[in-house]
Amino acid sequence: MTILVTGGAGFIGSNFILDWLSSRDERVINLDKLTYAGNIDNLRDVAQNGLHVLAQGDIGDRKLTDWLLALHRPRAVIHFAAESHVDRSIHGPGDFIQTNIVGTYNLLESVRAYWSELAGGEKNAFRFIHVSTDEVYGSLGDEDPAFTESKTYEPNSPYSASKAASDHLVRAWHHTYGLPVLTTNCSNNYGPYQFPEKLIPLVITNALSGKALPIYGDGMNVRDWLYVGDHCSAIREVLANGRIGETYNIGGWNEMPNIEIVRTICRILDRLRPDPDGPYERLISFVTDRPGHDRRYAIDARKVERELGWRPAETFATGIEKTVSWYLDNPEWVERVRTGDYREWVDRNYSQR
Ligand code: NAD
Ligand code: TYD
After folding, report:
1. Whole-prediction pTM value?
2. From the candidates 32, 58, 83, 135, which is the catalytic residue?
3. Residue 135: active-site member
4. Residue 82 near ligand 2, beta carbon < 6 Å
């Protein structure tokens, strides 16, 4: 049997493939455009594993998606591919519209054509898992209840608006055409192989090179952090046992303000890699806020627990310790991703703040 994963060279997709192949013999076709965020180095542990097949290409290329589906005949598609960084979406929303909306539309049409021709048993068993975000729900006030699956969509950034649009397309392809889809809306992930444009790897890698730790605004924006391995186990559970047409919120029950995240990382680094110049907190620097910065996200993950028995295995304390250790143990990975495009991005995003 075979599954097709899109965006499998990115942060979450590569963790998903590594976890998948560590415990199963089922082939994974990985359709990835290898944008700046796609890194084949993430998959070096399965480079010699014949069960991982990389197809470099765009989810918006209909000929390619039709051909891959016809050739490999997957029993499921797990759709991770997206432009995923809010700050980049503010600087240039075009790629987000193209990949997240038009690309998802193309993929849905391609999958629909493939699925509609499957024979009875295969057709019934087929699943399309759409991996989405809690950011589609908008921003919460301090006292608001956490997002449930019935929360209205109120996306505020070009990124979250494009993901919201893709969620709506996925929903419509189920209601109109009967495509067997399931959507997950997950909170902020962290863990190994995350590109250091996102808060946690940015702070770890900047601290290790003695650079400023930029905190937008007052540092009191709250996110609900989930270790990436837990997100992957939730997706496997939704794939195996989720109800078709449903959406599942996935979260870590771990709301924290950004400043607390940064201080926690500094304390771990002080212990694991003390800096002779003094505690890492001295590098914290408050910078101009992100335009339209959502104040708080919080996930109510009771539905996935009630229906599928899923809860995160890691606490923030255990997950962040593993994550910091991974970055300390993999300096060559960090070195390779922090070249070229990455340096231009850092100039564009931080030099004016
Ligand atoms: P990422 O940016 O690290 O990886 C995205 C991957 O998609 C890259 O490998 C990239 O090359 C590929 N890609 C981009 N455009 C493509 C295209 N047109 N065709 C084919 N491949 C393309 O993202 P991530 O953090 O791994 O997120 C994966 C998914 O999970 C996204 O859909 C994102 O919205 C969602 N999500 C992320 C988080 C998070 O905290 N990172 C939280 C919830 C949901
Ligand atoms: P990020 O990792 O970009 O994820 P998202 O915007 O999808 O939640 O940012 C997490 C939080 O950290 C968010 O509130 C913005 C903040 N942040 C900073 O304070 N400084 C930074 O340099 C970055 C990248 C993010």
Report:
1. 0.98
2. 135
3. yes
4. no
